[in-house]
Amino acid sequence: MNAKGISRRDFLKIGGAGAAGAALLGLAGCGQGGGQGEEEEGARGLVERGSIRIEMPTHMIPPDPNTAIMQNGAEQAARDMGVDVQFRGPDNFDIPEIQRIFEAAVAAEPDGIAATLPDADALGPIIRRAVDKGIPVVLFNAGLDHYKELGALTYYGQTEYEAGVEAGKRMSREGVDNLLVINHQQGQLTLETRYEGCRDGLGGTVKQIAVDGSDPTATRNGIETALRQNPDANGMITLGPGVAEQAMRAIKAAGRQDSVKLATFDISKPVLQAVQNGRILFAIDQQMFLQTYLSAVTLATYLLWRLSPVSAAPTGPSFVTEENAEEIIELAGRGIH
């Protein structure tokens, strides 16, 4: 049981993203057809929806392919709900820079804030200040263990530890007993939690390898070095898709394609293609489009009608394998996965 009275197991069982999503998407669709009379009256809220401004400060950096997917989700929600959503992130993963983005979001005095929480100690007080000022907040992607204590309405995201455990178990079933976990952003709580889950799920030898995720060449070189230093490793999990792309190159350069099985958290087009052709065993999709989409929609429905989920809602883990990669690739081409 976590600090909010909801266990991670219960979080997974809730099915909250589906339930909340159906309800909120239904609300978003109401009135789109230009209905008259009672339906038009019912769609009116406490504020004019066209006046709603939502700030979305995050830790997402431009090189991360998931950043564009998150932006797409936010923009789609803005169109569907008829509100303004400003998605923001740093040039590099740098906590002081992220703090400045969060501070600017609060200073802008928006109607609502949807934010990631990669570092609760550094960013939590800023979120608490926003809530104390009367700004409704939704957390997504990172912050499950802190959203209630900070006063956020809800949380959308993946249970990272359970996702790691399941990833470790899947690797074990594939015969992996010596696993390298590649961490491209040291100190990022989400990635540390994923590693811990992988370690506990595998039940064998697990070693965390730190690389510089901001530089693809440095990432690849770091992975090649790890492969040389760990000749007995027979499995590798990367904690992000860009790293997985470099890992494929590093494994090939090291001549270890037949001895090292690769899997990854999060997806990109090259990762999906590699899953489809068998170069990557599986990829974990936490459905980031849905995270930003539902966060913005939730703030809009709360500001309009005081409607919001009553608990956190999981959006992952969802596993992409060779069997379902084709349809996910089609949707990825539309910027949804």
Automatic annotation (TrEMBL):
UniProt subcellular location: Cell envelope
Keyword set, alphabetical order: Signal
Domain of life: Bacteria
SUPFAM superfamilies hit by this protein: Periplasmic binding protein-like I
GO cellular component, one term: cell envelope
Record Pfam families: Peripla_BP_4, TAT_signal
Principal location class: other
Family classification: Belongs to the bacterial solute-binding protein 2 family.
Name the UniProt record assigns to this protein: Twin-arginine translocation pathway signal
